[in-house]
Structure formats: C-alpha cells, structure tokens
Write the structure tokens for this entry.
Amino acid sequence: MYRVLTPLIDVLFVVAFGPAVGFLAGQFRAPSIWNGLLVSVVYLLLCGAVYLLRRLGTPSRPPEGFVWLLAAQGLLFGIFIGYLAWESSGLMNNLLASDPADVHPGLMAAMLAGIALAFLYPAVIAVPVAPTPPRSTTVGPIVRAAALVVINAAAMMVFAFWDVMFADATRYDGLETGGKLMVFAAAYLFYWLFFGAPRMLPLVLNFSKVELGAAVLSTGYWVWQSLARSAW
C-alpha cells in the first residue's frame, strides 16, 4: 500500500506547490509569533515522524557512518529551521533592534528555544532506537505515509522562505535553456545537500525504486518552479 501512497502524496504536493508556497510566503512576509509557532509545530511533527519511522525498523540498518552523515546534514536543516522560526516571527529583527543590555528575558528565552530546536532533529536521527516492527501490516504504511506528508509540508516551508528571501533578487531575463539547466542543477544539488535530510531518511530506511523516483522528480519540480518564481 505504501508503494502506491508514496507517488500519490508527492503528486498531491506537486499540484499544491504553487498555492501552498504562495500562501506561506505571504505569511512569512508579515512576521508574527504565529509564523514562528507554525514553523515550530511542523518541525516538531517532523521530528516525531522521523522517530516513528526509526521505531518501525528496517530490514538492514544503514552503516553507522551514513547515519552520522544524515545527522550532520540534519543539523544544517535544523539550524535553517531555527533561523526560519526567528525570522518569520520577527524575533530576529527585535533582537537586532534591541540594546544587548536591555534584551527582554522572554525574547532571549525564545531565541534559546530556537537554538535548542536546531539540535533536536539530528539528535532524533543519531540517538540509538530499538526497532519495534508493528504487529499490524497496515500500521507501518500509514505511519510512513503520514511521515511523508509532514516531510513534504516542511519542504513547502523551505521553498516559501526561498521565495521571500529571493523576491528582490536580480532576475536572469532571457537566460537560455542551457543556462537555466546549469542554475537548476546547482540549486537542485544545494537543496539535497542542505535541506534534503528529511526526504532522504525514508529512502534509507525503506528503499524502493518507486519512492526514489518520486522523490527525485517531485523535488526537481519544486526546485524548478522555485527558480521560475525568483530567477527567470
């Protein structure tokens, strides 16, 4: 069942990419505490989903070195999410505008919470977990499908923030197809390197060619559309 749900979920997020990113980008352009809460809740759900994926077990545990590589990559993703939470909530601007001697304790506590959040995701990946395969054959596919929904939702937040950050960037009008493909290849690699950790974990734990193809194609579509919104 999960083999069928995976491409369907990715197709749904491909279709929803434009409206979802447009809505989230509009939210992030108007900093508020609700934005910070939204980012934090999705991130916590993501960490919970990753923990459940690891608890489901896997036929062959990936090499220890690869686990730590995923954890290091996850730290980069966590740092970005912490920064996104600060920036979208307005905490970053408030901190920069404040005298260091007059920083409100609540503001400092929120900043420290953001730093702590950055380390949560890599910790969930790196800390040993005893796999406990579910007794029911339907629980695993449902949990994996729900985890993929959360993972893709987190990806929408990443692309929405890209949309905000590069809204005023110089556009490469008239860029030839070859040039666009080179920019796309660089951005695609950059995304997988710094933001692809959540999507890579399900592939490592429960590899299938169908899921790999769905991940590669859907992510490629999102990166291309993101560049179309900001680069050309």
